[in-house]
Amino acid sequence: MNMIQPLLQVRDLRVDVAGRTVLESVSMQVRPGTVSVLMGANGSGKSTLGLALAGHPRYRVTGGSAQLGGADLLAMDVEARARAGLFLSFQAPPDIPGVKNNLFVRTAVNAVRESRGDTPLDAFDFLVEARGAARQLGLADAMLNRPVNEGFSGGERKRNELLQLALLKPRLAILDEIDSGMDVDGVRATLDLVARLREQGTAFVVVSHYLHLIEALAPDAVLRLENGRIAETGGLALAQAIAQTGYARSPDAVEA
Hints:
Layout: E1 8-17, E2 20-30, E3 35-39, H1 46-54, E4 59-68, E5 71-72, H2 78-83, E6 86-89, E7 96-100, H3 101-116, H4 123-137, E8 147-148, H5 154-168, E9 172-176, H6 184-199, E10 203-207, H7 211-217, E11 221-226, E12 229-234, H8 236-245, H9 251-255
Parallel strand pairs: 3-10, 3-11, 6-9, 9-10
Antiparallel strand pairs: 1-2, 1-4, 4-5, 7-8, 11-12
Helix pairs in contact: 4-5, 5-6
């Protein structure tokens, strides 16, 4: 019996977007150092769950609860959630014109370090660490001096998200289709980073449709989202069954 307490505990979460209920009642728990894969048809609410937990103002929580490390996540503002160790990668990372990548990431890293009681990194120490992480992810050093994501390809944007993940070392990382637009080397770098952080205790919720990535992640749990609820929970076999039969699962398939 697993006695490790959940890091993330979500109960009966209900979320409205633009006056429409997208998540009816979502309950799930994620323990430290584990990987949970969230699957579901387009529009089922996978991105909504991540954005609501991160505190995006357009995603209004109208019921239920969410705790991170025993603290009330929903009572925190966006910045406090990040400082508490929540990281969200965007499905489509935006540009931030005029803001240098290295300054943006160092500011975020030092804010998190300060909340943990650690000494902030000066510019030199940060660049040493950032360049090392960038090399591991196949991201050119020159990208650190450019405005955030400005002129980046899709794969470079995703690698830049991974760079932030590598340097922030969050307690919980929600990765929304992080492999989208990635080449083979990018996917390999993603898997290596997840494995390293997982060993250090980071928990992951990974949104993905692709069985190859899911199998390589070796998830502890696979959850299928449908009609605003977790319709099925299982292991890798569930992801394999979905890949074979699709998301329109019959009652017989669910029972099996």
